[in-house]
Amino acid sequence: MRTSKSISEVLFDSANVILLCLLSIVTLYPFLYVLFASISTPAEFVQHRGILLWPKGFSLDSYRMVFENPNIIRSYMNTIFYVVVGTTLNILMTALGAYGLSRKNVMWKSTIMMLIVMTMFFDGGLIPKYLLVKNMGLIDTYWALIIPSAMTTWNLIIMRTAFQGVPDALEESARIDGASDWTILFRIIIPLSLPVIAVMVLFYGVWHWNKWFDALIYLRDRDLFPLQLILREILIQNDTSSMMTSVGGGDRMPVGETIKYATIMVATLPILFLYPFLQKYFVKGVMIGAIKE
Amino acid sequence: MQLKEETNHVMIQSKPESFSTRVAKDFRRNSTIYLMLLPVVAFYAVFHYGPLYGLQIAFKNFSAGLGIWNSPWVGFQHFSDFFNGFFFERVVSNTIILGAYDLIFVFPASIVLALMLNEVRHRIFKRTVQSITYIPHFISVVVVVGMLVDFLSVDGLINHIITYFGGKPISFMRLPEWFRTIYTSSAIWQGIGWGSIIYLAAISNIDPSLYEAAKVDGAGRWKQMLQITLPGILPTVIILLILRIGSFMALQDEKILIMYNPVIYETADVIGTYVYRKGILEASYSYSAAVGMFNSLINFMLLIGANYLSKRFTDTKLW
Prior knowledge:
The structure holds two protein chains of two kinds.
Chain A: H1 7-38, H2 42-47, H3 61-68, H4 70-102, H5 109-118, H6 126-135, H7 153-164, H8 168-176, H9 181-192, H10 194-210, H11 213-218, H12 227-235, H13 252-290
Helix pairs in contact in A: 1-13, 3-13, 4-7, 4-10, 4-12, 7-10, 7-13, 8-9, 10-13, 12-13
Chain B: H1 2-7, H2 19-54, H3 67-70, H4 77-84, H5 87-118, H6 123-134, H7 141-151, H8 157-164, H9 176-204, H10 208-216, H11 221-246, H12 253-259, H13 265-268, H14 271-281, H15 285-313
Helix pairs in contact in B: 4-15, 5-9, 5-11, 6-9, 7-12, 9-11, 11-15, 14-15
């Protein structure tokens, strides 16, 4: 179907493609730079100037040092704990809420739903929430990062929309067979909504993986710190001293540079690695979220 | 009517039931569901409505020993302290300016990207650009700011490029006049791709026959974009705009918090970060709760106002 294109159309198309290419480069290059820097030889890396198009030499020393660092290992384990336990609780809570609020003939469901949705538009703010968590004795416990984050309204709306989409006939025939609401939820609705459950696992999982502010305000005990808080020390406060216990005097500076990049990689790799597989689910989640009511 | 009654397997009688009978019946039928909803309701009561109860400390002098309820009332003292204080003008104007930048630059960026992607005929190219531009959304704000700090440092990547072209290195992260640019452009970088998904979905719902008709009328690609695609996604744009205005004052405080330093407070300190410093670091709970409340109130009023205006002038509304 190649009909003659007018000149303006050709211009339009080429400008469009060029701009999109530029945008892609600007988005992708920072990650490539970090990757190249992280596998460069520290000494060679420090000497280079400007844009990196390829690693300078090759060395995995920075990664070795990252993985030998007890702070990183500890916080990595903590983050995995927060992600696994947090996400499990999130899914359970969200599914229970979504089921109840998506069933027909539940008298109070619209009132409850309204009270829940309203919390999206106003809240008590940081200080009352902090005092609440403090008064509950959650400060400096693992639970401070899990219980106050038990579910989010936006995800509840997404899952509820999906549950509403399951045909009523299935539920009714199960009920005639004597199934309880528990059976209907766990044996019918959830198995039929697996794609959405996957979306939720990803949304919540990434959320927990990347969260740092709650940890900043609720945790003092370094043993409980998630990875992001340790990252902040290394990347922003530029404190790599704790990283280089095993490096002799003169080598410290260059290694400090590449360690930062290796740390970014280590903290981001799980997401970047899974990303191609997860992407379609993420997009699906946004789409479902977009169709309200 | 008849049909509806049938689905309610218990309801056959025609007389309207009293409220209490209906409640009793509903509870008998749905008790399992209410049991399931119990943890959810409890969670919202405690962690969303609980802080609203705690907000009364904005009008009290909270002391931990006395607790929220027994702390003495002081009326609007904390509010007037804030309004008359040294920081009021600075944090409020910074918040408004950054919020405005967000509306003017970050918000339309995703719409423009969606329109551009929609014009791409090559599927694989389109998919690739989409996949790439989504990535930053999944990267933690700590890593994003970490990369910013690194690339923008005096001997960082950007300054190497500047000096290569004969410019002088700029200490980006330590100059107040650069903060807004950095904050806003990095926000575009982080959100442009992800934000475009919803508009692309809206575009795909536009009736293709409209384009056919426009082509017959001799409209070029540019004209079609302006006169069909853009109006087609307008309701979506307005809804998202209302939501955005409703969070006008709720900036990415977390991002600013890791980005800024005392040298650039002049342009970077916003209400949210001020609340954090006063409340969490200096433990002035009542005062910072008042500042936070001021912020949320303005937000809420903006949301109501935006929705009202939209209802008035377009057919689109949030409620």
